[in-house]
Design brief:
The complex is a heterodimer. The radius of gyration of chain A is 27 Å and the shape is globular. A six-stranded mixed β-sheet of chain A has the order 1-3-2-4-7-8. Chain A is built from twelve helices and ten strands. Chain A is α/β, with parallel strands linked by helices. Chain B has 20 helices and no strands. Classes of the chains: A alpha/beta, B mainly alpha.
């Protein structure tokens, strides 16, 4: 049965020979609005159970890798531990039987077909931009004149300036940096001259769960390959949860949790700064969810303390840029003329483009202070 | 809990077993499905379960009162109270911030600077859908269109039934509620449900996600730097993405309900083959169109009060329909442009001016009508997708900016091939379904698992937004 939204509009009938011809053509290719439901064999619920069993067995056999990575991403807890061991067991069996090959073969096959978008370097991260000052684009009008856009002055004196010229920068992080922030940052930095910006982004990762994604190894590889002078980090949004240390589940905020997390942050900062690069770690903004926001504060404090102890590493308290008064969460911030501009997305977590622009402007000022030397192409 | 996740697979197995074990005891069966639906919602964000309960208990209570009272005045008062109540919940959570920001912008335009503080409320998942289900329940009871007595648990279950809770399809109360008063239908079309689920999965996890990640999202992040070829592909790509995303979701919802023995209404019928905008709205999100017609367009006077009133009713219906999609000027403008075009189309199709009737009946009109409709729909999707009007304007400007494309031929093929599937004759689909249903039943399940493997290996990886689950 066709759905007539506005029935009166149906009064015009198309009865010309052409309309008839087209109608028969439509019938031929079967373009009628709603096909009648096919009369298929009807089954009992028990049969549906059999189908689901068939589904489960084949899915476990061929998709054990996906299942394992799903189990690893769940918040560590006792039941998650059980699921994880079960998934590991299934994966071992299917790997032994060589069933995991199917997924790999399919992936290779899809790669040989080609990708949807051209990127300049698909080898490791697939997202490298070479920003030249001539390519920098203007940002949408609404992003620009914010009152708060004037970056608050850097409250600390600059600790030593880099004598090197900035030629390559690395953006490291999760979904908070992945979207508009990475774009605003490469744009803002590129405005100063030609620059190679490598975006090393892994959505849904953090440093509390190396089994999900091993940031330390990824960072070591990237530093060796790219040797950037500047690294901008935004990690931690996925770390506000329990952590698995050895076989033990440590609840978020426990003394041991803080100790382990701090040590990992310090180690990561050392690995990034070792070759002389400067690191700016963008903290977590206040979140709409109060409990999440409190956890973000705990994480920020740990990272800020770590930055105090590592040379050339600094921490940005980002809520002073995208937060309301008293660093509270705000979806909208007032512009100079009283218009409200959206700085955060509806999810109450991620930055909206105008929020990213605010952060990026501050970061670019910070970079200017630290790298007074002109860039390539300046 | 999203449909294509292991969480949902586990949840569904438990819901399925429990539901069929209890099928012989309707009261317990309904209670079980209700609790399952609340768990489904609670796993998303348990803090909104009381809101879901409150909204549906309010609507159900009023529906029950309406069925028990004959006084005309009281009935009118009850229905007004219910509709206003439900709409104000929607308004507070969904539109308050937007309205205040608009007021601030208005003052700014007038040159006055006002301090407006916007409350920070999270939008409960699916609120727009369960508020609309609540209104359907109340109005169908008031119009005496319900064939049976509304029970408390039945009413709650109608609003919260998990396959349709989060994003529809919006089943009318007088269609779905009677299904809950009988034991569930035991003759299951398992083959059809399995195929539907697999199809939905492919649409969502393969096509929609791949286009979003590689074609659409990068374009809308910086349309001011995009060139014509990429912009055009993103324009068509978004049309494909939104269709595959939403209809893929709907396929999975309908399949889930079918395995539990319930029939949800169809929501899509090859919308991009439409040759007029009116035709498009009969094929796109059909249950919303029907809802708007039943509960907004007809109460506004529908088509019975002359041309001008009909046009006004049409325009208001579509504008509010646009706003329903989200609080933003883009959605309002999207609704308004569809409303205005429907009004214009109506004038065109009822006009008796000789050259218009001649053109309308000419051979070339239908293909031209398709071309115009499709492009109107694609261009207005820009308003729908853009985070702000400025971005929408940039996206439109990008359509004519020369330069070298960064999207590849593979992307073009994916977009065109996905569009082309809309013209696949439905008889083909039926033939596939028929052959499929002859396979051994366990092999049908295994087939869906192979589709999962295929989708997982080929679709974009790393799209696990579990930040969302921290709330």
């Amino acid at each position: 049965m066709a759905i007539h939204l506005f029935p009166v509009l149906d009064t015009v009938t198309q009865d010309s020979p052409t309309a008839e011809f087209i109608a028969s053509l439509e019938q031929l290719i079967g373009a009628e609005p709603e096909p009648p439901p096919a009369q298929l064999r009807s089954r009992r619920p028990r049969d549906a159970g059999m189908a689901m069993l068939g589904f489960a067995l084949v899915a476990l056999a061929f998709e054990s890798e996906a299942l394992l990575s799903w189990a690893r991403r769940l918040e560590p807890s006792a039941p998650q531990g059980v699921l994880l061991s079960a998934a590991e067991g299934v994966h071992r069996v299917s790997d032994f039987l060589r069933l995991t090959r199917a997924r790999q073969v399919l992936s290779t096959l899809s790669e040989s077909v080609g990708t949807l978008a051209k990127t300049k370097d698909t080898a490791a991260w697939g997202d490298v931009t070479e920003v030249t000052s001539s390519e920098v684009v203007d940002e949408p009008a609404e992003v620009l004149p914010l009152t708060a856009a004037v970056a608050p002055p850097l409250d600390e004196p600059v600790v030593g300036k880099s004598t090197q010229a900035l030629a390559s920068a690395l953006l490291v992080g999760d979904s908070l940096i992945a979207g508009s922030l990475a774009l605003s940052l490469s744009n803002g930095l590129g405005r100063r001259g030609d620059l190679r910006v490598v975006r090393a982004v892994q959505i849904g990762t953090g440093i509390s769960a190396p089994e999900v994604f091993d940031w330390p190894s990824a960072v070591a590889e990237l530093m060796a390959k790219e040797a950037p002078q500047l690294v901008i980090v935004s990690l931690g949004a996925n770390d506000a949860r329990a952590m698995r240390v050895g076989d033990e589940v440590v609840p978020f905020g426990a003394a041991q949790w803080k100790r382990v997390y701090s040590a990992r942050v310090v180690a990561l900062m050392r690995a990034l700064t070792m070759g002389g690069a400067r690191v700016l770690w963008i903290g977590l903004p206040a979140m709409r969810d109060a409990a999440y926001s409190r956890r973000a504060d705990v994480l920020n404090q740990l990272v800020a303390e770590a930055a105090d102890n590592v040379a050339r590493a600094e921490f940005l308290d980002v809520s002073m840029l995208v937060g309301a008064e008293h660093r509270r969460f705000a979806t909208f911030l007032p512009r100079g003329d009283g218009r409200l501009v959206r700085v955060r997305l509806d999810d109450g977590v991620h930055y909206a483009p105008a929020g990213s622009a605010l952060v990026a402007r501050w970061v670019v000022d910070w970079v200017k202070e630290r790298f007074p030397n002109p860039l390539r192409g300046d | 809990m999203l449909f294509p996740t292991p969480e949902y697979a586990c949840f569904f197995v438990l819901a399925f077993i429990g539901s069929w074990l209890l099928a012989r005891w309707p009261a317990w069966h309904r209670l079980f499905l209700l609790l399952a639906s609340y768990s489904f919602y609670g796993l998303w964000n348990w803090r909104f379960v009381p809101l879901l309960f409150g909204v549906s208990a309010f609507a159900t209570g009023i529906a029950m009162l309406l069925q028990r009272t004959q006084s005309k005045g009281l009935r009118r008062a009850l229905v007004t109270l219910a509709v206003l109540g439900l709409l104000s919940v929607l308004a507070i959570f969904k539109y308050l911030s937007f309205a205040l920001a608009t007021v601030a912008a208005l003052f700014a335009t007038l040159g006055a600077r006002v301090e407006i503080s916007v409350p920070e409320l999270a939008l409960p998942v699916g609120l727009s859908f369960f508020a609309f289900h609540g209104i359907s329940l109340v109005v169908d009871s008031q119009r005496k269109q319900m064939s049976e007595q509304v029970t408390f648990v039945g009413g709650l279950l109608y609003v919260a039934f998990f396959p349709q809770l989060v994003a529809g399809p919006i089943a009318r109360a007088n269609q779905l509620l009677p299904q809950f008063t009988k034991p569930p239908h035991e003759g299951l079309d398992v083959a059809g449900a399995a195929l539907l689920f697999a199809r939905g999965l492919m649409k969502k996890a393969l096509i929609a996600n791949a286009l979003a990640e590689h074609v659409v999202n990068p374009f809308y992040l910086a349309p001011q730097s995009a060139v014509s070829a990429d912009a055009v592909l993103a324009l068509y790509g978004y049309a494909v993405q939104i269709y595959c995303d939403f209809s893929g979701y709907t396929d999975m919802a309908i399949a889930s309900a079918a395995l539990l023995g319930y029939q949800l209404p169809q929501n899509f019928a090859a919308p991009y083959t439409a040759h007029s905008l009116r035709d498009f709205w009969r094929r796109w999100h059909m249950t919303l169109s029907r809802w708007l017609r039943e509960y907004l367009y007809i109460p506004l006077g529908g088509s019975r009060n002359g041309r001008a009133r009909t046009a006004l009713a049409l325009f208001i219906t579509m504008t509010l329909g646009g706003l329903w999609h989200g609080a933003g000027m883009g959605f309002v403008l999207w609704g308004m442009s569809h409303g205005a075009m429907l009004v214009a189309e109506r004038a065109w199709s009822t006009s008796s001016t000789p050259w218009v009737t001649r053109l309308r009946k000419s051979a070339g009109w239908r293909p031209l009508g398709w071309f115009l409709t499709f492009h109107f729909v694609c261009l207005t999707w820009v308003l729908f997708r853009s985070p702000s009007i400025d971005v929408a304007w940039e996206a439109l400007r990008a359509l004519v900016r020369p330069g070298r494309a960064s999207l590849t031929g593979v992307a073009t093929v994916l977009v065109l091939a996905s569009l082309a599937t809309q013209w696949i004759p439905s008889t083909w689909w039926e033939r596939v379904a028929e052959r499929w249903s002859k396979l051994p039943i366990a092999a049908q399940g295994a087939g869906v698992a192979l589709v999962v493997l295929f989708v997982d290996a080929l679709g974009p990886s790393g799209l696990w937004p579990f930040i969302y689950f921290q709330f």
